[in-house]
C-alpha cells in the first residue's frame, strides 16, 4: 500500500463532521478498520489502496489527499461529486 498520512484522515473526518462509525458505514468498512487507518496501523489488518480510495470518496476529498504531508486545505475538499440526483437540493 502507498504511504499515507494517517493524521489527515482524522482531520478530514472531523472537518466533515463525520463520526468514525458513520465514515465506516459510508466507506463500506468496519469502524475498527477506520480506527486503524487513523492510527497509521493499516498494515496490521491488511487494508489496501482500494479501502483508502473508499475513505477518500466517503469524505469527498481529492484522490491523493491522504498521501500528502502538508495540512489539509480548502482545495483538498473541492471535488466534483457529479450531478445531483434530485431537484430538491
TrEMBL record:
Gene Ontology MF annotations: DNA binding
Protein's recorded name: Helix-turn-helix
Organism this protein belongs to: Paracoccus homiensis
Location of the HTH cro/C1-type domain: 9-66
CDD domains in alphabetical order: HTH_XRE
Pfam entry (one): HTH_3
Top-level lineage group: Bacteria
Coiled-coil residue windows: none
Amino acid at each position: 500500500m502507498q504511504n499515507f498520512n494517517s493524521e489527515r484522515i482524522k482531520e478530514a473526518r472531523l472537518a466533515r463532521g463525520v463520526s468514525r462509525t458513520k465514515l465506516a458505514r459510508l466507506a463500506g468498512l468496519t469502524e475498527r478498520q477506520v480506527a486503524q487507518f487513523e492510527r497509521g496501523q493499516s498494515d496490521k489488518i491488511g487494508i489496501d489502496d482500494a479501502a483508502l480510495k473508499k475513505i477518500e470518496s466517503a469524505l469527498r476529498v481529492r484522490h491523493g489527499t491522504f498521501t500528502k504531508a502538508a495540512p489539509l486545505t480548502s482545495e483538498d475538499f473541492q471535488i466534483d461529486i457529479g450531478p445531483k440526483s434530485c431537484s430538491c437540493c
